[in-house]
Amino acid sequence: MNVNQSAPPVPPYGQPQPVYPGHHQSSYGGQPGSTAPPNPYGVYNGPVPGYQQTPPPGVSRAPPSSGVPPASTAQVPCGQGAYGQFGQGDVQNGPSSTVQMQRLPGSQPFGSAPLAPVVSQPAVLQPYGPPPTSAQVTAQLAGMQISGSVNPAPPPSGLGYGPPTSLASASGSFPNSGLYGSCPQGQAPPLSQAQGHSGAQAPQRSAPQQASSFTPQASGGPRMPSMTGPLLPGQSFGGPPVNQPNHVSSPPPQALHPGTQMAGPPGPPPPMHSSQQQGYQLQQNGSFGPARGPQPNYGSPYPGAPAFGSQPGPPQSLPPKRLDPDAIPSPQLNELPPQQKTRHRIDPDAIPSPIQVIEDDRNNRGSEPFVTGVRGQVPPLVTTNFLVKDQGNASPRYIRCTSYNIPCTSDMAKQAQVPLAAVIKPLARLPPEEASPYLVDHGESGPLRCNRCKAYMCPFMQFVEGGRRFQCCFCSCINDVPPQYFQHLDHTGKRVDAYDRPELSLGSYEFLATVDYCKNNKFPSPPAFIFMIDVSYNAIRSGLVRLLCEELKSLLDFLPREGGAEESAIRVGFVTYNKVLHFYNVKSSLAQPQMMVVSDVADMFVPLLDGFLVNVNESRAVIISLLDQIPEMFADTRETETVFAPVIQAGMEALKAAECAGKLFIFHTSLPIAEAPGKLKNRDDRKLINTDKEKTLFQPQTGAYQALAKECVAQGCCVDLFLFPNQYVDVATLSVVPQLTGGSVYKYTCFQVENDQERFMSDLRRDVEKVVGFDAVMRVRTSTGIRAVDFFGAFYMSNTTDVELAGLDGEKTVTVEFKHDDRLNEESGALLQCALLYTSCAGQRRLRIHNLALNCCTQLADLYRNCETDTLINYMAKFAYRGVLNSPVKTVRDTLITQCAQILACYRKNCASPSSAGQLILPECMKLLPVYLNCVLKSDVLQPGAEVTTDDRAYVRQLVTSMDVAETNVFFYPRLLPLTKSPIESTTEPPAIRASEERLSNGDIYLLENGLNLFIWVGAGVQQGVVQSLFSVSSFSQITSGLGILPVLDNPLSKKVRGLIDSLRAQRSRYMKLIVVKQEDKLEMLFKHFLVEDKSLSGGASYVDFLCHMHKEIRQLLS
Ligand SMILES: [Zn+2]
pTM for the complete prediction? Predict the structure, then answer.
């Protein structure tokens, strides 16, 4: 290779660009429709066979024979899926029973008085499932009461996973042992404390508050005998009545009627929360796992136990200081007969179950296609498999709304507090059975639009005057129909050609854009991809560079293509860098690639034009040669410092010089501390957690990246960032450009080829292959009365209406919030039109249009009846995750809780039939709002555990920002599947169970996934045969904890489980790395983090406790 060390003078940017082969605008002028792009999405449904060649499977498969994993063993996921390293603070398996005992008196009010969750609202029509009869409700009530029955104090021991000592030893050896390599660790755990608790107080399983129903369990033996009951499909989904027997059989029910209880405490609402108050106070001593507050080892960074964000004050402020009226001991405690003082609790089976709701929707709505012809229809849940037939409204795959019924007035909307928002995924991938949007070509005249508001022609436009004019459905303006577009109307006033034209009959379609829609009135060139590889010491040493260069050789054949194109129109370029940048000339006429070094990073320029961006097929030999040479050239590097902003700058300048849009793939390893623009310092400071300055951890440390992002957006330069950090790299700052340019960030903490290659390769392939729209602008228009006022996602906005996206792929969403401008009309409803102007992968300029009509209502009940909780949660999570940039995290949590309480209180007040104040009544469509909201509240961004790093939080924060509804759904409430319960021959996915430890049986194996992480949990009592079939070892103890891959075995169970894992991975947009976790093993803490119905170690409330808290909040609002 020729290395030209001295940078040549600035090249003549102005010089005319070569004509790029492969760009044939004309070939796309035509035809869309059904004949168009067959199915560009097929490739995502699994690994492309062609790839298998590269990494021999064996490479990534650590031999399971390594026995007990020495702490440093490769299989232990370092910063993998769980995005983080789990510190020692998490070790304790659960609270001690003492705590539980102490909670008892406090718990009293939960069960006895106020809370009788009645989720169904009989008076209200229920879209999902059969309406509960009043009998059902009564039964449920009865169930509640009974379930709140007294339980004997738990047996002093035998409830835990093992003797206290085992706990202690587990904790002792947990993370510090080097499992997580050099990655940042949590603080040292209060081992002695943990032991103290475990020893002094009978060990207890976690999820203490729920233990009563399932109390007696022998450690090691089959646990939770009653559990299998509820989990069996037939039973667990049977609804409240089915659950009855369980409760009835429990010890002397107090059989108190809610009303009775209520009568007891006159005056203020029964302090149901007092239980929590007391409970949480006591939990300081253990119920939340390792005691938090009082222990010396837990410094300020750790939040106090209080789960609800409603507690002010730093963690140190111990419970007694809490000022909460409900903390005052409840009077009725003393009035109750002694037996009832022991414990009251809510039966987890009697509170709304996500699994049940998902299952019901699948059963009720999964069999028939969702036809979009009717205005204001609520689509099936995102968890239901269904087909969509476009009959005039956009498919829910493109747009989902928080409500499909908008209040007519802003007063009503304010009263209900239900955010009105749409989660829009303009380029969503469709299943193969559904056709991509038709492409409409109106020739030189371009798409037909309203003269006033510029809305595009759509099925809701009204043709009048015999078809000579049309009235805009958005602004009511009357427009002339151009002669070439004229058509007669039928007797109903409809154009006779309506069904021949997608824009008159479908919810979604595309227009071919004319030159008027192009920058500088010039049709765009096809986009380019630039691969920019960090070749500093860390990148070389970890094997990353070698792996990447090898992979790129084959990957370049999978650049996105359009329609039936033979080869991709996308050109590629290569840069390597550490403190300086190396550009490569890979022109096809060269025998060898040429390197040009630019060391003046302060004033970045591109040293070559000709030969930098090339067609893969033409320059293949030179490219292959380059990729072979790069790892060798830098093999002996000692350079540890990197730059970052100049890298982006260089890529962007190169695209600018080539006058095209494109994408930068940056592979980066470290905090850019080299002297250069965008230089960063390590400003990580965990002490800021729970202070007013915590927000600074999420903010970029310099404004340089925003400015750079703005330039990138102007150029249509999208940045995808692959991070391989061994320590803090300031994700909050590094992700600014990807975030603002519509790009993606991937993070592989402590990357090691043998452990992480499969995940990285899979993510990279998908990322390179995926179809992207470049240089895009999105505008959402609405009919008179409402207006888009706020936007969430990965994009840039330079004004208040246009969402600018340097790139947009099929996975990213833009969430739009609407507010009232004026009164809406029930009759005409409300309309949304989302128009996305973008450049396709082949360089074609297009407009994609999505239309959606919503109903408007004057009755609040209609609003609550047509809501979608999953979308609501998506919006609320994004709202909260943006909020942490500007407000203390606690304020953000409080805001969410208050809003949720207001939503539910408004329902209770205005829509529910009269009933005792002691009952919690939730709207049918929102009965999961509390459980899901709690998951958001205790997520790592809003309530981090000790093990979650600042980078992890910033990473997740930006990920969630552009997630779609299905992704947030499973991310916040993971899917937990029993693997060994259903018959082995069953080909369907096993029914999921609720994410709570209480639902696990030690004789079974479970799989858990949340879209980013994938776990297999193995119970200690699993049959040997099963262990053998799955892990190829003879006993539980021989299973390697932290195993990252299942052995390929020729038996039905192994095939089934591996097949399931493959299918789950194919469903998610990122590769989920597997971790095998054994019951009672130290890694189990990783897994338990995802059992979101339980209390979390970071202080997050259990579902039951949160529901009680919600109830209290609602009652306060109502009183
Ligand atoms: Zn208009």
Answer: 0.74
